[in-house]
Amino acid sequence: MLMKLSIQNFAIIDQLTVEFQQGLNIITGETGAGKSILLGALGLVLGNRADSSALRTADKKCVVEAFFGLSNQHIKDWLQQNEIDEEDELILRREISPNGKSRAFINDTPVNLTQLKALTSALVDLHLQFDTLELGEEDFQREVLDALASNTTRVEQYRQQYVRYAKLQRELQQLKEQQQQQQKEQDYRQFLLDELEQASFKENELEDADQELKLLSNAENIATVLSESVQFLKEGETPVVQQLKIVLQRLQQYKDMHADLSAISDRLQSAQIELSDIASELDHLQNSISVDEARMQQLNERLELGYKLQKKHGLHSTNELLALLEQLQQQQQSVADLGNSIAIREKEAAAQQQQLNKEAAVIHEQRKKYIEPFTRQVNELLSRVGMPNARLKVELTTTSLYQYGTDSINFLFDANKSNRFEPISKVASGGELSRLMLCIKSLVAEKISLSTMLFDEIDTGISGEAAKQVGILLKELADRQQVITITHLPQIAAKATAHYFVYKQEEKSVIKTKIRLLNKEEQIETVAKMLSGEKPTDSSLVTAKEMVMG
């Protein structure tokens, strides 16, 4: 439960601390004194957004702290999971600096607003003015029905499963779009692939062919040069090899007479042998070279095809063409692989959808089962709070699969037994919405573990016996959990376990907002003033005492 709220420099509040009690905490006071601002400040520590305009004094920091008793195991588990120290009490703090920057703390550990809201949503239900508009929202209506049907855990498990299914569906859609795009290009890629596969080039083929073609194109000239070279070295009238042989023979007869001649003779002999071998190889080359027109035609055709493909693809070598061939083969294979991936995911999605449909059917039956007792209890409560002719009806229709099942839930309302049920937002007045919301929350409170419920002017548009019954209903609700509410009605204020009065007081020429807990006598007097005005009559004091003590 909320034990204490401390506020500094927020709106019209300079500094204020209030300690709340278990049961029904009622806040009253004159208009403009700051009653709703108390709940607005509490809204900050619950995760509501704020900026520097909320500061009373522009150059000072705003600090709001809320102290809660820590008995909820779910809260303890959350603190442990988020690595926040567990203390004897839970302290939430929100700070707003003059530049508008906001910081949040849980037990002095800095947290972001998402974390703060995740924690406080399990602590407090804050019902502000105009929150009754939630009644017309399907999310709220679904949450109410699921809470009463004890469906909340099952629906959350289903929702997590649906999130995975939706992610799979998105991935599947992306794969199909990718496949569709690739299929548009597949025919053209296949055409390019067929061209290259049909060409069937070998590594460095075009470069080798170009070299061979140059040789064949100059075969006659090369053969002539080779023939002349052989003639010069070996077969002419005065062949070089023969001339060297003669020189060698003439030197041989004197080599013993001079040391240098022996070495020169050896060298000449080696040269003669080398030139003889060269002449033989040139002769062999000459015999191997011939003009092959058919081969030249074949090479020209291959080169023409290769150069055409290179130009087409902006490439410059045989190996680049072969690399392109491999790339196209991989791309075509990826289309086939993509089809396999799609088939696998479609099978997985179908299985998940089947499981979701089973779970959704269970959720539907559970909701359907609790519609009758829920509407009966709400209608009984409506009669108690001064709306005997009002009726609530829950319409449950089947929709396509979504994250909360296959149900569309709509709360319909008939205020005058006309049997013409319409959506709540279209037919209920502000006062009717407030009382209907109270009736619904009083039922839901039994099913959830919220420690504190807060209402800001839940009494809008009611008076007399209806106000009295609202007070009784709030009192009954407060028997199970802490309730804090702002009211202008004596019938509700009289039911308070703890009655707080908000007022303005001048201190050193500065008007400040104050709050104090009333004792029984002060509570009776305050209720009497609410009944008859600033100067209560004796009869109003008697009536107030009966209301408070009764």
Automatic annotation (TrEMBL):
GO molecular function, one term: ATP binding
CDD domains (UniProt xref): ABC_RecN
Domain RecF/RecN/SMC N-terminal: 2-508
Coiled-coil region: 158-219, 268-302
Record keywords: ATP-binding, Coiled coil, DNA damage, DNA repair, Nucleotide-binding
Keyword hit for tRNA-binding: no
Family: Belongs to the RecN family.
Cited function: May be involved in recombinational repair of damaged DNA.
Protein name: DNA repair protein RecN
UniProt organism field: Lacibacter sediminis
Lineage of the species this protein comes from: Bacteria, Pseudomonadati, Bacteroidota, Chitinophagia, Chitinophagales
